[in-house]
Design brief:
Elements: H1 2-14, H2 20-40, H3 42-49, H4 54-73, H5 78-102, E1 104-106, E2 109-115, E3 118-120, H6 122-147, H7 150-167, H8 172-188, H9 193-211, H10 215-225, H11 236-248, H12 273-309, H13 313-337, H14 355-386
Antiparallel strand pairs: 1-2, 2-3
Length: 388
């Protein structure tokens, strides 16, 4: 028995205490994103700043900041995130209010706070803050959530407040991401089905009311259904995106050879970067990228399940929320680009250009690595205690 325990101990010592597959997948997506931003942004960079490498330099700066920030974030214990979650939510809500008062606007939306040359999008920060808060609440009040409707009232009220501030910008896409991910977390926590159905019904009614309250939203829906009826008007962006995919075929035109990025397709380096990827890298590049995106989302859910099984409630719920958030935002972005969903201003995680989005999503990935690390450490310590 002693020999078996010794052999097991040596095997455990060789175990890697972080998820290498997740780390390499994230690095792979970030690398693809940097290459595609470099390719897709040259024309627009030359037009707005007379520097074709304008967005490439900024993206490189964001990546450097992300790398340095990750070295700090990976050392923060999950208990610290749990304790700070109410403060994070308060700061996020304060920034959402502040952006309505002094924020800068673009394309009819007020979404950015400017601090000199630095621009911050509070909506991106609010996602992580809200999910941390709800994970903390579920870790403490899961029994109340399962038992009665009052247990749902507090997180639902926070979701409603956050959604109202986002809709005031307006930022309908981020509101949907927050709402769907938060409801999925409540469902995973064991909320009763009729409670869940009541909330979903109210949410769907609010969405339809919000859509039909403004004529431009109705036109956006109509153009999404029949973009080719007005290919040079309301359906222009979607038709150009579909043309990019069609021109890509199986192997693509080749890296850097996209035609649509020459300012035929608006937002080619941000919301519609996946269309440029499809045009330049073809079906092969699309499948490879989708595989990495799916794997990260699946891996996050797996990490969350294992954390919950290890009785690490906060970490488990937070990891699941990150997986749902990552997967659903990917689904919405790609659905918009291929014409399955109406146009929304959502980035493709870890790929699209955007400092706030890249930094917040990378922090979420680092938190996933930390959650998995703490679970493996706890498992190893339990093994060492049991082997004595």
């Amino acid at each position: 028995m002693w020999l078996i325990n010794s052999l097991n101990f040596k095997r455990q010592q060789k175990d890697v205490l972080y998820d290498r597959a997740l780390l390499w997948s994230v690095l792979g997506l970030i690398s693809i994103g940097f290459v595609m931003v470099a390719s897709a942004s040259i024309s627009i960079g030359a037009r707005i700043s007379s520097d074709p490498f304008y967005f490439i330099k900024r993206d490189a700066l964001y990546l450097t900041s992300v790398f340095l920030l990750s070295l700090v974030i990976i050392r923060v214990p999950m208990i610290t995130w749990q304790r700070c979650s109410p403060l994070m939510l308060f700061v996020a809500l304060a920034m959402l209010i502040l952006v309505l008062l002094i924020g800068s606007s673009a394309n009819g939306s007020i979404r950015w706070l400017a601090f000199g040359p630095l621009r911050v999008q509070p909506a991106e920060l609010s996602k992580l803050a809200l999910f941390c808060y709800i994970a903390n609440y579920l870790a403490r009040k899961a029994k109340e959530v399962r038992a009665n409707f009052l247990g749902l009232c507090k997180p639902i009220s926070v979701i409603i407040l956050s959604s109202a501030l986002l809709l005031a910008q307006p930022d309908f896409g981020t509101t949907i991401i927050l709402f769907v991910t938060a409801l999925a977390m409540l469902f995973l926590a064991g909320a009763k089905l009729w409670h869940f159905s009541l909330i979903i019904g109210s949410g769907i009614f609010t969405v339809f009311l919000f859509i039909f309250s403004e004529p431009y939203r109705i036109r956006r829906i109509m153009s999404f259904w029949k973009p080719w009826d007005d290919p040079f008007g309301s359906g222009y962006q979607l038709t150009q995106s579909l043309m990019a995919f069609g021109c890509g075929k199986f192997w693509g035109r080749g890296l850097g050879n996209s035609i649509q990025k020459l300012e035929y397709l608006p937002e080619a380096h941000t919301d519609f970067i996946f269309a440029i990827l499809g045009e330049e890298l073809g079906y092969f590049g699309v499948v490879l990228t989708l595989s990495l995106l799916f794997f990260i989302s699946f891996r996050a859910m797996s990490i969350g399940r294992k954390a919950l099984e290890a009785n690490q409630q906060f970490s488990g719920f937070l990891a699941c929320s990150i997986g749902i958030w990552f997967g659903f935002q990917t689904l919405v972005n790609i659905g918009v680009v291929v014409g399955v969903l109406p146009t929304k201003g959502l980035t493709l995680p870890l790929i699209s250009y955007g400092g706030s989005s890249l930094i917040v999503m990378t922090i979420a990935m680092v938190i996933l690595l930390r959650i998995d690390f703490e679970r493996r450490i706890a498992k190893k310590q339990a093994f060492l205690i049991g082997s004595r």
